[in-house]
């Protein structure tokens, strides 16, 4: 399951064909064949790390039901990865020689013979094929059939306070399939989830910000409140608008015209068209042209209560309004998933790639790396690699809990932002001054202290860590070539002497205390649904902002798709096209004052007053050069134009 992050409103080469199956394979391979048998090919990563002997509660009943997806490796998995790398590398002769979706599938996708062979194997084991796409074959059946098919036993294991089913040893596929299977998901899973059609719930309860506000950074000083860091501090801004963000990140005259941006989230806001149009009109953004905002939605939604469907409405709203604010002429396609679970989110990403719905894809959702399993990582990476060969770049928010220690007790990064095939977007606190002048940025990390009872001091200043940009070193993903020579060795080798992937790659505004103004229909205390505006933040904001800036850069490049942009992003490291963000740019400490409605909607429940210190991101630090809060930095004047010079 993946979570949305917009919660900080206030705060192998294979033959083209396969031989017909015969003999033992056609009859089904008995479960007695071990995963390391010469007749079987191991499907690495299908036994989760938490399925230990100590946690083993015994075999799962043979009659229990399993729903799984068998992902197809295609006819040239190694070739796909190699082409994805070369086509994205500015120093490669293949740079920018993208394939169409049809060409990519013909060159690297699974053949009809491979699909038929996989289906025959699964059915011969007693599983029922429930669906087939160019990416996977979905099946259902009992545990006995699943064990027979995948050459393993399924046991029950404790994980925390719950019990889950998982393979007792790594799953496998018949060697006669000649590597046609990439992986299988669903052998380990939580209790069964509903799959019936569900109606989307109404919007969440209203959230509003109390004032006073600054209209730009420092415009209104909290003169009656205590000092912080030796001086009076400004009130938090009401929320930056597109005009201010465009100025801060060097948009110039570029508007994203002719560029397609996709956004993926779960579910779909029923009021998005109205909200987006109303927001644009109220805040000086260009009006939407006919068909400029489109939605691609599933027939049915599932797990709406479990996933908190209404909470995703604000995510979509933020993403759409932020992209339009920064790239007002870009075409936006929202691709909603049927739920917040990996299978459905993978389906949404695949829709973008299979139909080439956009060249740039913003994704403001994710989970902690500890919850990612290698089988799912392989499925995600395959989609990202297909995207890369087609010239599609994926951007993922890096997370809102800093190093995740306060949230999970373990220092770790988020996923899919940890993939070496996506651009991970970190976060900053942004100061835009009078006349839309860029002043400075810090790495996003907030510490909060409340006003004392007598109003003369801040209690326990600077206070406790509340939130901050996700980042750090992956424990599972090797260091990609584009990071070598840029990412400091101490970061790259933090979890592995050979070097691992470090997150993020680039960053943009994320701090909710210097956040973005959004407009959304919400449910008020009297039960009415009304449009209202509030300030929001999180790397859920940073991702669509960077996606929009990339749309401007693609326009500057004459409309040529930027594709997987990391090699290009890192090739510009150290140049003036980036703001090199540090935690204390003024040298004196930075903070803002906030007054909030305790009930989130009005003053009837009272007010709370606090100071929010900036640049305090858990154990992570924004320093000169590359860092694990802001990556290479944020776009500056010249960044957009630099992509037109390749």
Word description of this protein:
Helix content is 24%, strand content 24%. The chain has a domain at 253-427 and 465-580: 3-Layer(aba) Sandwich (Rossmann fold). Strands 11, 12, 13, 14, 16, 18, 19 and 24 form an eight-stranded mixed sheet that branches. It has a four-stranded antiparallel sheet with strand order 5-6-4-10. Strand 25 and strand 26 (529-536) form a beta hairpin. By secondary structure, it is α+β, with helices and mostly antiparallel strands. The model is unreliable at 9-36 and 190-198 (pLDDT under 50). The protein has 16 helices and 30 strands.
How far the N terminus sits from the C terminus, by CA atoms, comes to 39 Å
Might you state the CATH topology name of the domain at 253-427 and 465-580? Rossmann fold
Average pLDDT works out at 92
| Fraction in beta strands | 15-25%
Radius of gyration, CA atoms, in whole angstroms: 25 Å
CATH architecture of the domain at 253-427 and 465-580: 3-Layer(aba) Sandwich
Strand-pairing-aware structural class: alpha+beta
Under CATH at level 1, the class of the domain at 253-427 and 465-580 stands as Alpha Beta
Biggest β-sheet: count, sense, barrel? 8 strands, mixed
Into which percent range does the helicity of residues fall? 10-25%
Shape: globular
**Uncertain runs with pLDDT below 50, 5 residues or more?**
9-36, 190-198
Count, helices:
16
Number of strands: 30
- The CATH homologous superfamily of the domain at 253-427 and 465-580 is termed Peptidase S8/S53 domain
Can you give me a brief rundown of this structure?
This protein is an alpha+beta fold and 646 residues long. The chain is 24% helix and 24% strand.
């Amino acid at each position: 399951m993946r979570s949305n992050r917009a919660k900080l409103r206030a705060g192998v080469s294979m033959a083209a064909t396969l031989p017909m199956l015969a003999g033992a394979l056609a009859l089904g391979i008995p479960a007695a064949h071990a995963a390391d048998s010469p007749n079987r090919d191991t499907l690495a990563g299908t036994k989760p790390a938490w399925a230990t002997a100590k946690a083993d509660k015994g075999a799962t009943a043979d009659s229990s039901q399993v729903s799984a997806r068998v992902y197809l490796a295609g006819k040239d998995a190694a070739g796909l990865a190699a082409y994805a790398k070369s086509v994205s590398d500015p120093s490669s002769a293949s740079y920018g020689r993208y394939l169409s979706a049809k060409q990519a599938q013909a060159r690297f996708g699974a053949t009809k013979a491979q699909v038929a062979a996989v289906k025959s194997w699964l059915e011969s084991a007693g599983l029922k094929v429930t669906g087939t796409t160019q990416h996977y074959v979905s099946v259902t059946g009992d545990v006995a059939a699943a064990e027979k098919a995948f050459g393993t036993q399924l046991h029950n294991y404790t994980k925390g306070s719950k019990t889950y089913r998982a393979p007792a040893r790594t799953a496998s596929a018949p060697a006669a399939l000649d590597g046609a299977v990439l992986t299988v998901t669903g052998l380990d899973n939580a209790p069964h989830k509903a799959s019936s059609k569900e109606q989307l719930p109404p919007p969440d309860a209203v959230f509003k910000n109390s004032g006073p506000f600054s209209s730009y950074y420092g415009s209104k000083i909290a003169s009656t409140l205590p000092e912080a860091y030796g001086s009076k501090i400004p009130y938090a801004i009401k929320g930056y608008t597109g005009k201010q963000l465009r100025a801060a990140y060097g948009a110039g005259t570029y508007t994203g015209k002719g560029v397609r941006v996709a956004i993926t989230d779960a579910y779909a806001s029923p009021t998005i068209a109205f909200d987006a149009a109303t927001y644009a009109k109220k805040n000086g953004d260009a009006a939407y042209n006919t068909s400029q905002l489109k939605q691609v939605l599933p027939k049915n939604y599932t797990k709406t209560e479990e996933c908190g469907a209404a909470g995703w409405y604000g995510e979509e709203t933020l993403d759409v309004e932020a992209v339009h604010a920064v790239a007002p002429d870009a075409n936006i396609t929202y691709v909603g998933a049927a739920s917040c679970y990996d299978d459905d989110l993978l389906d949404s990403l695949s829709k973008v790639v299979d139909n080439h719905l956009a060249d740039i894809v913003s994704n403001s959702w994710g989970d902690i790396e500890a919850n990612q399993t290698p089988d799912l990582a392989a499925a995600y990476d395959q989609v990202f690699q297909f995207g890369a060969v087609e010239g599609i770049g994926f951007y993922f928010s890096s997370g809102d809990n800093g190093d995740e220690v306060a949230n999970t007790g373990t220092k770790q990064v988020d996923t899919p932002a940890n993939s070496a095939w996506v651009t991970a977007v970190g976060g900053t606190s942004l100061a835009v001054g009078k006349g839309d002048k860029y002043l400075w940025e810090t790495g996003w990390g907030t510490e909060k202290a409340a006003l004392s009872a007598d109003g003369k001091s801040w209690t326990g200043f600077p206070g406790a860590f509340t939130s901050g940009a996700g980042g750090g070193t992956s424990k599972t993903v090797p260091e990609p070539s584009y990071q070598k020579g840029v990412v400091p060795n101490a970061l790259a080798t933090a979890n592995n002497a050979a070097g691992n992937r470090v997150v993020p790659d680039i960053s943009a505004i994320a701090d909710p205390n210097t956040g973005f103004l959004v407009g959304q229909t919400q449910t008020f205390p009297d039960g009415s649904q009304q449009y209202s505006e509030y300030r929001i933040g999180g790397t859920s904001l940073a991702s669509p902002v960077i996606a929009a800036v990339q749309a401007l850069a693609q326009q500057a490049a004459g409309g040529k798709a930027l594709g997987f942009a990391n090699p290009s992003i890192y090739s510009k490291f150290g140049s003036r096209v980036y703001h090199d963000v540090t935690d204390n740019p003024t040298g004196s400490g930075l903070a803002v004052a906030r007054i909030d409605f305790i009930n989130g909607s009005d003053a009837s429940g009272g007010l709370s007053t606090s100071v929010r210190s900036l640049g305090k991101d858990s154990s992570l630090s924004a320093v000169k050069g590359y860092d694990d809060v802001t990556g290479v930095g944020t776009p500056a004047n010249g960044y957009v134009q630099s992509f037109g010079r390749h």
